[in-house]
Amino acid sequence: MSKSFLEVDGLSKVYPDGQGGELTVFEDIRFALEKGEFVCIIGHSGCGKSTILNVLAGLDEASAGNVVMNGKEIKGPGLERGVVFQNYSLLPWKTTLNNIVFAVKARWPDWSKEKVKEHSERYLKMVGLDHALNRKPSQLSGGMRQRVSIARAFATQPELLLLDEPFGALDALTRGVIQDELVKIWEETRQTVFMITHDVDEAILLSDRIFLMSNGPNARIAESVKVDIPHPRARATIFQNPAYHKTRDYLVDFLVNRSGSALPEKDGTPKIVEPAKGVAQSGPASDESETESETAARAVNA
Amino acid sequence: MASLNVRAALLSVSFLILALGLWEMATQPPEAQTGMTEYEMLMGGADQESRVPPPSAVIKLAWAELSNPFYDAGANDKGIGIQLAYSVYRVLTGYLAAMAIALPIGFLIGMSPLMYKALNPYIQVLRPISPLAWMPLALFIIQDSDASAIFVIFICSIWPMLLNTAFGVANVRQDWVNVARTHELSPIKTALTVILPAAAPTILTGMRISIGIAWLVIVAAEMLVGGTGIGYYVWNEWNNLDLASVIFSILMIGVVGMLLDLALGKAQKLVEYKE
């Protein structure tokens, strides 16, 4: 049995319901991520997506189950996992540059000042903020703040990036621009990303696989939907791909009609779905790597 | 149309002139009457001496005092600068000692709900005690009037700093603490690079309240312990029935208090941040 990069095994979260009883938000969550994958998770509010992400980040504890990354169990937060929060979480008394420097210094404490600064500036340039190095977060727009936050997470080069609905608070136009930037950075760095979103189009644009969660309480990750569209993708052209529409229809149908009753496989792993099978016009290289990771995931699931 | 500042300044000055004018008029000695009553003759015509001095007399005295503020002609005759310097020295010593205790303990209480619950009852009982009520105990234990005055300043300035530090630290946004956690900062580093700057504006507010209270209390404390300081000076001039000096020193107390507040206000500006 091959080991995946990240393995989540039987995670559940139970809260007291305030009337003496207990409320199980989600239960028996099982999935695996491969190195270099971009995976989005979609589900209705209250299904516990954010809690799952926080458990992966080490900021929250699950009631049962465990998470193993690189063969080591995750206990508490760590620099090998970077987090982008929905509300940016920049330190408002630091300038844009110093917000990145702060993180880079924490990651590589023995780097020289110049090296830290140069590295930080490089990542700010990637998100197009090299003109705003010395401005405070309060002097930036919401979109710019989220760019800083993304630059901070990528600059520390974590093995796993966790994005908690990073574009949720942005207007549609800004969101589109930053999605394009995220695609660009990801194509460059090919980091492993686990992201929460509410936006079906965003999920298709960005991810290799999309996890669909059923509704809480007792929510499960019911299905794992493969996005069979080759990289590099672009927001302006992706809708011309027939696989895009097949995938989108499938996701919307799940969220509207089936999220209340959907269940995973009997062994608790998500059902693997390929809604665009046969219609994809995928390039050979990316197709191969995706098949590989899917096979690996299947192997773990089996 | 002149700017708002210019108009406000003009209005301020005219209020001042009006007030000084009324004061001057109200304190003129009565015109000499042709004959004194029998009582006035018995009092040697001393009536006008016991009036509140007019502003002109206060300004004349202020000019004389401020042109030579640091003279020292014996225990009961020192320049206003020397007296103020004594008071400022006591306030700053007591205040810095209070800071050294209040900031770390405030941090501890803010970080630990356990310590907060354990220490809160004591703070709530000790905080409303008038600082001067400590004076007899301080004099008995310390046996030194100067150190007792400093102790009173210490005890009165500790509470606002302590409570504001605890409040500021306890209310640092969880997001920022999470940023520190995901970057694996040590507890000390988290305290210094995240919690301290985040809580600094609240802490500085406490420090500003404290310096104001300390300056209020020093005058009363020095009236009690005597010897030196602006509080002693006021009381001494009252005993000398030199009301012009009393009024002048009251004004100086106000000016120095304002300067202390301005200094803390500037410091507050330095650590402020917008979210």
TrEMBL record, chain B:
> Is Cell membrane included in the keywords of this UniProt record?
yes
- Identify the taxonomic lineage of the organism of origin: Bacteria, Pseudomonadati, Pseudomonadota, Gammaproteobacteria, Pseudomonadales
Q: Which Pfam families match?
A: BPD_transp_1
What is this protein's record name?
Answer: Nitrate ABC transporter, permease protein
What residues does the ABC transmembrane type-1 domain cover? 84-264
Mention one GO molecular function: nitrate transmembrane transporter activity
InterPro entries according to UniProt: MetI-like, MetI-like_sf, NtrB
Similarity comment: Belongs to the binding-protein-dependent transport system permease family.
Q: Does the keyword Ligase apply?
A: no
GO biological process terms, semicolon-separated: alkanesulfonate transmembrane transport; monoatomic ion transport
Membrane-spanning residues where? Answer: 95-116, 149-172, 213-235, 241-264
Q: How does it sit in the membrane?
A: Multi-pass membrane protein
UniProt keywords (A-Z) are: Cell inner membrane, Cell membrane, Ion transport, Membrane, Transmembrane, Transmembrane helix, Transport
Q: Where located?
A: Cell inner membrane; Cell membrane
Query: What NCBIfam families does its record include?
Result: ntrB
User: Chief location of this protein?
Assistant: membrane
Q: Give the CC-aspect GO terms.
A: plasma membrane
